[in-house]
Amino acid sequence: MSAEAVDILIAGGGPVGAALALALEGSGRSVVLAEARGTDSSGPRSAARGDARAIALSYSSRLIIERLQAWSQLPVTPIETIHISQQGGFGRTVIRAADCDLSALGYVVNYTDLQQSLLAAPSTAERLFGAKVAGFDGGEAIVQTAEGERVFAPRLTVFADGARVADDNDVPVYTKDYRQTALVAWVKTEQEHNSRAWERFTPDGPLALLPHASGHALVWTSSPERSAQLAALDTAAFLFALQTAFGERLGAFTDAGARSTFPLMLRYRREETQPRSVSVGNAAQSLHPVAGQGFNLGLRDAWELARLVRDAREPGSAGFVDSYRRARALDRRAGIGFTDSLVGLFSNSNALLGLGRGAGLLALDLLPFARRFVARRMIYGARGLP
Ligand SMILES: Cc1cc2nc3c(=O)[nH]c(=O)nc-3n(C[C@H](O)[C@H](O)[C@H](O)COP(=O)(O)OP(=O)(O)OC[C@H]3O[C@@H](n4cnc5c(N)ncnc54)[C@H](O)[C@@H]3O)c2cc1C
User: Fold this and answer.
1) Are 72 and 184 in the same domain?
2) Which label site among 8, 147, 235, 374 has the fewest CB atoms less than 10 Å from its CB?
3) What pTM value is reported for the model?
4) Residue 386: inside a domain
């Protein structure tokens, strides 16, 4: 079988791969996007069906998604204020959009809606669904589809296939198991959200409530055992447990939707580039969701890669993949480090650390410039505006 020539093959049509295909519009490159999951009569809509996760998009991600022409159709809920506190300790801080001269600090969206919007936006890329990239030898890539195998000879292969880095034996991967699981669910409270997000650090792990449509998206992190127990409770017992952990700030918790769980790890490729290939999004680094950085960082990977591809003489050359690696090094390192240190600092019941945390939150509350620094880091990443 002779290989089909293509400039860029994107393996994975999750939100990062889908965004990359859009970012490459107008670059003059031929693009094939292969997504392993299939479709149904409504087109690519079923690609992420069943994923109840909500994603907090930073303001800088909004700017990128707007440029990708996929923002207007996205059902988002703005976050205007973030309230950060710790259970059983002093200190708390409130970060407001006004601190950063913005109308919103970020936006909450369903993972499924995000992926669908990005996959549904007009694109000249050839999008294949039910198409699994099953092999890549540094030159040719084998894609398995329902109709049979296709072999491509891409100038550059981009792995956007999510957190499967640990399966790769030939690529050095750093892995840290946090021994934590995130339980996600949509929940309803007596009081309205008023566009306020809550991040509460408990000894088990962080508990976040993000404003989402007419309720909240809950991300409740605890030990795998505790998460399994919480997932198995009936609704009334689950709401009681949640009320106990979060407190009364939003009145009573009145309802909860389906619950799903995600084991949490830090996993990243020490080298996110290989000859003729690069990795973006979760395929390059998979983070704890505590600071809502994973997709936002992955979107910046895609944006930067597309920018470099536009100007490249030979995407896929050793020089090209090296320039991509260097371009992303600072933001990537900062995103990984920031998230990992938050997990370490706040997921610990040590009394001294508790005092330090309280003092840190108090300092943030008292020092507007420190609050602005943290907010801007979360909004724009380490490299500033896209
Ligand atoms: C509980 C939780 C909450 C989170 N909250 C936030 C948040 O608030 N903000 C934020 O920025 N991030 C958040 N994240 C992280 C975010 O979900 C990820 O960073 C994001 O989904 C990464 O997108 P991706 O496209 O790189 O990978 P994925 O979303 O994993 O998508 C990968 C895609 O590749 C496809 N695929 C896999 N293998 C193949 C193959 N061999 N061939 C072809 N296709 C393949 C899969 O079917 C999938 O569609 C959260 C994560 C979790 C678990």
Assistant:
1) no
2) 147
3) 0.90
4) no
